[in-house]
Amino acid sequence: MKVKLIVALFLLPILIPAISAQFDVPEWELGWDTNMETTYELQLDVDDWDLEEILVLYVDNERNNEVNLELTIELSDEDFPVEIDAPESVSISGGSNDSIEISITSISDEVKVREYSPTKTVTITVTADEVVAGSGQSRSTQEIEGDLRFSKEHKLDHEILEQNIELNAGTYIEVTLLVHNFGNHQDAIKDSSHTVRMCPHLDVEQLDTTEDIVLKTTGQGGELANPHEFTIRVKASSSASSKTCEVSITLASEGSGESYTNSFEVEVDAVESDDDNQNDQSPTDEDEPVISTEPNSTPFLGLVEIITLLCIIGLSSRKR
Q1: Do residues 49 and 81 make contact, with C-beta atoms less than 8 angstroms apart?
Q2: How far apart are CA 144 and CA 161, in angstroms?
Q3: Of 129, 67, 127, which is closest to residue 92 (Cα–Cα)?
Q4: How many CB atoms lie within 10 A of CB 293?
Q5: Do residues 51 and 82 lie in contact, with contact meaning Cβ atoms separated by under 8 Å?
Q6: 46-61 pLDDT per residue, tens
Q7: Which of 31, 269, 42 is nearest to 173 (CA)?
Q8: Cβ proximity of 57 and 73 under 8 Å
Q9: Which pTM value belongs to this model?
Q10: What is the mean pLDDT of residues 261-275?
Q11: In whole angstroms, what is the distance from residue 109 CA to residue 49 CA?
Q12: CA-based nearest residue to 153, from 243, 211, 106, 217
C-alpha cells in the first residue's frame, strides 16, 4: 500500500498538467495583418494634404464558441491631426480568423496636417477586451501597438518680386527671387538653371547662390510665413536689340528630385549709335570765304568781260 502511494505521489506532478491540458479552453489571438514591425508611414498628398490609409488587424479564435470583443484605439499624441474609424465591438465565430480594418484619414484643417512634423512618431494602441455574453463582464484582454508618422513631402515654388522689369542694352539690373517651400519638411535647391527665349544677348547671373542652402517650410505663420529671398542679376549686352524677353528659371528640389520652372518678362531697350565722325549740319558763316570790297582794290573782271575785250581788240587790229 505504501509503495502504491509513493508511486502515485511520484506520478502526480506529471499527470496533472496532461489532465488539465485536456480541459484548457482554446485561446484567441489579436495581431497585425499590416506590417507594423517598423514605423508605418502615412502617405500624404502634397497638393491638398489629404490622407487615406487602412490598417488591418486579425483575430484568430481557436475556440469552438464565438468570442465577443470590445475594441479601444488610442494615440500617444492627441494632437496628431488624423481621424480614426474602426468598429467598437466585433464577434468572431469559433474556429475562424477574421480581419478588422482601421481607417485613418487626415482632418480637414490642411495647415495643421502640413505643420505636423514628419519626423515625429506617434504610437497607436489597440486593446481588445473579451466580454462574456449576457453578463458584460471582462474575461480576458489583449493589446497590440504600432508606430505611425507622416510621410516627408517636398514642393518648391518661386517668383520674381519686381514687376515691369526694364533695362537698357549694356546694363544690368538686380531682382529678388522669392523661393517658397510648400512641403512639410526642410528642403534645398540642388540645381538651378535658366533659359532666355528669343534674346541671345540677355543673361542671368548669380543664380547659383540659391543652391545648397537649407530652406525651411514657408507659409505656416510666424517667421516661416515669409519666403526665402535671393538676389540675382539680369544683364543685357551692349549689342542687345529692343524687344520683350521671356526668362525662365528652373529650380530642382533636393528632397523630391523634381524641377520647378516659372517665367517672367524683361523689356530691353537698345542703345542708339552716335556718328562722331560725320557732320550733317550746314556750314556756318565762319566757314564761308571772305571777299574783299575795299574801295582801293582792283576791280574784278568776269569771263564775259574778258572775252568781249579780246573781241574788240581783234576787230581794231583788222581795221588797221
Answers
A1: no
A2: 53
A3: 67
A4: 6
A5: yes
A6: 999 999 999 999 999 9
A7: 269
A8: no
A9: 0.72
A10: 87
A11: 9
A12: 217
End-to-end CA distance of the chain: 209
Contact yes or no for 175/225 (Cβ under 8 A) = no
Place of cell 542703345: 271
pLDDT digits (tens, 9 = 90+) for 72-114: 999 999 999 999 999 999 999 999 999 999 999 999 999 899 9
The predicted structure's pLDDT at residue 139? 86
* 187 close to 254: Cβ distance less than 8 angstroms: yes
What average pLDDT does range 220-226 have in this prediction? 64
Which domains, from first to last, does the chain contain?
25-150 (2.60.40.10), 156-269 (2.60.40.10)
- C-alpha grid cell, residue 32: 497585425
HSE at residue 14, side-chain half, CA atoms within 13 A, is 5
- Tracing cell 480581419 back to the chain, one arrives at 99
**Using CA atoms, how far apart are residues 252 and 179, in angstroms rounded to an integer?**
12
Burial of 61: CB neighbours in 10 Å, binned 0-12, 13-18, 19+: buried
| CA dihedral sign, ordered 289, 293, 299, 304 | positive
